[in-house]
Automatic annotation (TrEMBL):
Region (Disordered) residue spans: 115-144
Descriptive protein name: Ribosome-binding factor A
Organism: Hymenobacter persicinus
Protein family: Belongs to the RbfA family.
Subunit comment: Monomer. Binds 30S ribosomal subunits, but not 50S ribosomal subunits or 70S ribosomes.
């Protein structure tokens, strides 16, 4: 579980990285820049794991490779934005967030399941069916 400090720092990084992608370094991303779905920070605030989500289905791996190739320039642009708010600029590690694709896959799998509706079955009791055992008497004066 992340501390409040980690959560605040992650939120700051997410906002500033989005601004870096859109305003400072738009030339690095042809078309749309990747979106940042989640930022996780190590307890010492030295490493930031950034999960990128690409709205374009087939371009996720390409966008991740592009971001990883330009990680140094992204970190420098981020440092210019947050240098007066933090002591240490964290190391940026980028990952592809495939949770949306996984959710779509699970939805498709669940949609393919053929679960028949439960039909009520009435079994007529046969004449030779065993009867319930007699009820024990709890009191001596109890009538059956």
């Amino acid at each position: 579980m992340e501390s409040k400090r980690q959560q605040k720092f992650a939120s700051l990084l997410q906002q500033d990285l989005a601004a870096v992608f859109q305003r400072d370094l738009p030339h690095l991303f042809p078309g749309l820049p990747p979106g940042i779905s989640t930022v996780r920070i190590s307890p010492d605030l030295g490493v930031a794991r950034i999960y990128l989500s690409s709205l374009l289905a087939g371009k996720g791996e390409e966008a991740l490779a592009n971001v990883q190739d330009n990680a140094k320039a992204i970190r420098q642009a981020l440092a210019k934005r947050i240098r007066k708010q933090v002591r240490i600029i964290p190391e940026l590690v980028f990952f592809l967030d495939d949770s949306a694709q996984y959710a779509a896959h699970m939805d498709a799998v669940l949609g393919k399941l053929n679960i028949p509706a439960e039909t009520p079955t009435e079994d007529p009791a046969p004449d030779d069916a065993p009867t319930a055992p007699p009820r024990p008497k709890l009191f001596a004066d109890e009538d059956e």
